[in-house]
Amino acid sequence: MNEFLQLLIVGISQGCIYGLMALGFVMIYKATEMINFAQGDMMMLGSFVAWTLIMDLGIPFWLGVPATLIIMASFGALVDILIVRRVIGQPQFAVIILTLGLGIIFRAAAGMIWGQVPLTIDSPISGSSSFYGIVIGNERLVIIAVTAVLIAILWAYFRYSKWGIAMKAASQNQLAAYYSGIPVRVIISAVWAVAAAISALAGILLAPITLIEPMNGLLGIKAFAAAVIGGFGSMPGAILGGLIVGIIEPFAAAYVPAVKGSLIYVVMLIVLALRPQGLFAQIHKKKL
Amino acid sequence: MNLLEIENLSISFGGVKAVDDVSFVVEEGSVYAIIGPNGAGKSTIFNLLSRFYEPLSGQLNFAGNDLLELRAKDIARLGIARTFQNLELFEHASVLQNLLVGRHVHNSQSWWRQVLFTSSVIEAELEHRRKVEEVIDFLELAHYRNQMISGLPYGVRKKIELARALCIEPKLLLLDEPSSGLNPEETEEMGFWIEDIRRDLNMTVVLIEHDMSLVAEVSDRVLAIVDGKVVTEGDHTFVQSHPEVVSAYLGDVQ
Amino acid sequence: MRILFKTNYKQDLNLAKHGGHRFWYGLLILVLFAAPLILGGYYIGEATRILIYAMAGLGLMVLTGFTGQVSLGHAAFLAIGAYTNAWFLAQGFSSFVALPMAALLSMIGGLLVAIPAARMSGIYLAIATLAFAIIVEDFAGHLNSITGGNRGMMVDVPTLFGYQIWESWELYLFVLSILVVATLAVLNILRSPLGRAMIAVRDSEVSSQALGVNPMKIKVFAFTVSAAITGLAGAFLAHYMSFLTPQIFGILLSIQLLLMIVLGGLGTVHGVFFGAVLIGVLETGISIAKDTLPSSIGGLPGIEPFVFGVILISVIVFEPTGIYGRWIKIRSYMEFFPIYRRKSFKRQRTYLKTERLR
Ligand SMILES: Nc1ncnc2c1ncn2[C@@H]1O[C@H](COP(=O)(O)OP(=O)(O)OP(=O)(O)O)[C@@H](O)[C@H]1O
Ligand SMILES: [Mg+2]
User: Fold this and answer.
1) Do the Cβ atoms of B76 and C221 come within 8 Å?
2) Which of A239, C27, C166, C205 sits CB 3.0–4.6 Å from A19 for a disulfide?
3) Residue C214 DSSP label
4) Is residue A18 part of a domain?
5) pTM of the full predicted structure?
């Protein structure tokens, strides 16, 4: 029982990270119908930027984190403005290849700038808590708490703020949004910025429990699986998918180690096969 | 004899009835026009006939076949060809290739013969090519034969879509707004072709059309629908003078 | 410009459309077969690698370039082909058994993905193939008894009629012959109803249906052919590498294949070869440049993928038709020299082409 609980909490905390990244996938997808395969690499870059600010330049942690988020948000917007925007209207696979290419570049660049030796950030949160006879690292509890708060903020943002509502409108119908005076291009860049910032936050949260290295970018593929499992059309779905993936992993590793690397992808394939229409729910048949 | 019989056909999208209890029959060898304002449900009728949409209720009968037992890919083989309102050509292929796809239903070569490109495949290909060339001559497309679709002007594309449908050698031809986007000369030309198709190729034609002079010129019978419902049916002078048609059109369509 | 007078339609069915074609392509094949007489062992090895890339790219092109189904997991088929081939050779079978088995098992893998995936639209397929590739890679790491797991597996040399192919030039000729056959098969498909149906499905699935094409069937067919050819390439890759580990077949290899056909020019057989040569030369070029450049640049880890990434993105953004498209433009520039108009190739304005209605 204790072991079960332990694995569950580890899984949930890991799942929060995947969920946050999956959120980035879904936001960008809903706004632009693009799948940003560089999402995981944005997360990885975020943790490196945080490392530079906090460990290298010695900026206090509580200042370094928002600074990282701002830097990464600008970076996300720049990626949209300088590169992604140019391929609008090209076939969807061109866009997929483009973002895959961006991911490769980010990973390679991170390797050139920060090297391949894994880095760590000294986190102000340390130690562990014990309850019900299990011991959990505090960083994991922080991940869960921060994710919960962030979800609440995002929910309120899309519900109440002018920008949030405009973003939602733009993702539902670009043309209509354009005609009703919403600056669609700016909105899309803003979506990229927010998605990048959320990923960077995931990267910072992840830093205390893993090492920071360029290959972390490939975690994006797991987050992508999470987004698919969660339905790819809704933000709550993304978080749910993240949690499912996060929970599957430690349990698979503990009980059926042979499939620990592939189980989530098997689940993803099953989800795909079972509800090929339900996923990407907002795509309709094109008008003939 | 009736070639096409549609009975009590209905479909709804998100609660809105796009086609509502529509019935009509098309006699073999005739030209049948469907008119109605934008969003009346005209194209939806074609899409139902093509089996792209599943009807809520109703019967679709073509030359003794129940279309509802078939799937979209089987419709052409029965002898029903169509064009699309917003052109669905194969953009990154040549005109010739587009037309040859129209011969797909007449292909009977097994896949391994095609991989080996055996002499029977060559024979069949030559036969397809001859048929396609007939259509090319008929619609005067020889000039564009080897050009890519993506570089061609709209009027020509429209003609190519018609040509591709003719390559099926269908019994029934469904034309969704054949004159939209064409200039007056091209529209007149389209009218002549539709007449020729009926007279020389012995095909039955159902067309959706907004251009009333074209409708008057080519059609034997006209069906008017508004908001998915049949308003009236008859010859064009009768339908055009129907008060509901007049009122639906006065506000809506040029 | 060459003006062709067509005496009959049969000419149009020929692979080589006129004497010039026949001469140049004939010469090319001749030179390729004679290459071992001229080139030394190192370059023959490099050339073999390019041919293997081309074979894998040909497989992917059938699926992605001609049928419009993006695969992000073609490395899986390379892996299946490679391991199957190696396993059958290790059991003492000859290449006559091992190679067809490699193609066959790869094909079965392809069917496994294709049958559920054919119902899905483009993006699902990309996702499904990605998942499939990760699963295959993971499996290869766990099936110790067959693949040697993560420790790896030695690959025996190919044998034909009891003759063992040791020399690199022999392997080169073997790969080249199979590649020529595979290319001819693909060219035949392309000039047949099946190939046209593939292009129809790629460009407009709805209207292909209205013309009597069964898109599911065509996609499954394309998938099968694609997997078989890529599986064969995998079998030869095993020989080229002579030692297999699951890590070879990671997602990066899948992306590299995709990169290759995009670079070369999607939707053309020429594109496959342009892409393979370019990637092959680029790899060699980068490794040479790494040695000659000052170590502060050349020695940087990750310079190779970085260059690849930059090229990939530049192609997508600036020249979506790939090298072959660029070549066509240059050629017609020269043919029409004084009267060439930039406009004739002006990219058509594109708009957000969306499948959404709302
Ligand atoms: N796939 C679909 N999903 C949702 N609604 C649809 C779909 N297809 C058609 N409709 C709706 O059904 C109604 C009828 O559309 P249809 O295209 O048949 O009109 P139409 O008579 O062809 O009009 P037009 O003259 O503009 O071509 C419209 O309100 C349209 O929005
Ligand atoms: Mg319509």
Assistant:
1) no
2) A239
3) -
4) yes
5) 0.86
For residue B69, the enclosing domain spans: 1-79+170-203+211-254
- Looking at B117, B148, B168, the residue that finishes a domain is B168
What is the C-alpha separation between B241 and B220, in angstroms, rounded? 16
Residues with CB under 6 A from ligand 1: A 284-285, 287; B 13, 18, 36, 38-44, 85; C 357
Which SS3 state, helix, strand or coil, does residue B12 take?
strand
Residue C336 in any domain: the answer is no
| pLDDT tens-place string over residues C205-264 | 899 999 999 999 999 999 999 999 999 999 999 999 989 999 889 888 998 898 899 888
Instruction: Check: CB of residue A221 under 8 Å from CB of residue A130.
Output: no
Burial category of A85 from C-beta neighbours within 10 Å (exposed 0-12, middle 13-18, buried 19 and up): middle
Q: pLDDT band at C121, cuts 50/70/90?
A: low
Is A76 in contact with A254 (CB distance < 8 Å)?
no
pLDDT band at C24 (very low <50, low <70, confident <90, very high): confident
pLDDT in tens, chain B (254 residues): 899 999 999 999 888 899 999 999 999 999 999 999 988 999 999 999 999 999 999 999 999 999 999 999 999 999 999 999 988 999 889 999 999 999 999 998 999 999 999 999 999 999 999 999 999 999 999 999 999 998 899 999 999 999 999 999 999 999 999 998 899 999 999 999 999 999 999 999 999 999 999 999 999 999 999 999 999 999 988 888 888 888 877 655 44
Task: Please report, for the domain that includes residue C201, its CATH number.
Answer: 1.10.3470
ipTM score above 0.85: yes
Name the residue in chain A with its Cα closest to that of B83. A288
DSSP C355: -
Cα-to-centroid distance, B10 and ligand 2 (Å): 16
Q: Does B110 share its domain with B138? A: yes
Q: Do C357 and A284 touch (CB under 8 A)?
A: yes
Kindly state whether residue C300 falls inside one of the protein's structural domains.
yes
* Final residue belonging to a domain, choices B115, B145, B168: B168
B75 and B2 belong to one structural domain: yes
- Rounded distance from Cα A177 to ligand 1 centre (Å): 21
Shortest Cα–Cα distance, B241 to chain A (Å):
30
Widest Cα–Cα separation across chain B: 64
Co-location of B178 and B246 in the same domain: yes
Shortest distance, CA A131 to any CA of chain C (angstroms)? 36
Contact B75 C189 (CB under 8 A): no
Give the total number of structural domains in chain C: 1
On the question of pLDDT at A282 being above 70, the answer is: no
Say if CB B48 and CB B11 are below 8 A apart.
Answer: yes
Residues with CB under 5 A from ligand 2 (ion): B 43, 85
pLDDT at A196 over 70: yes
Q: Rounded CA gap, B208 and B198, in Å?
A: 16
Instruction: Using the mean position of ligand 1's atoms as its centre, give its distance from the Cα of residue C145 in Å.
Output: 59
Length of chain A: 288
Domain of residue C171: give its range. 38-306
Residue of B19, B42, B177, B207 to test ligand 1 pocket, by largest number of atoms within 8 Å of CB: B42
Which CATH number belongs to the domain containing residue B189 in this structure?
3.40.50.300
Distances, alpha carbon B177 to alpha carbons A44, A195, B162, B181, in Å: 53, 44, 11, 9
Q: Are residues B94 and B141 in the same domain?
A: yes
Are A272 and C305 in contact (CB < 8 Å)?
A: no
**How many domains are contained in chain A?**
1
Instruction: Check whether residue B174 and residue B251 sit in a common domain.
Output: yes
Residue A93's domain comprises: 2-216
For chain B, the domain total comes to 2
Residue C54 forms beta bridges with which residues? none
CA-nearest residue, atom 24 of ligand 1: B38
Is there a domain that residue B84 lies in? no
Provide CB contacts within 8 A for C207, sequence distance 6+.
B84, B88, B89, B90, C200
Atom of ligand 1 nearest to the CA of B47: 18
In this structure, what token pair is assigned to residue A257?
């180690």
Whether residue C355 is contained in a domain is answered as no
Same domain, B48 and B115: no
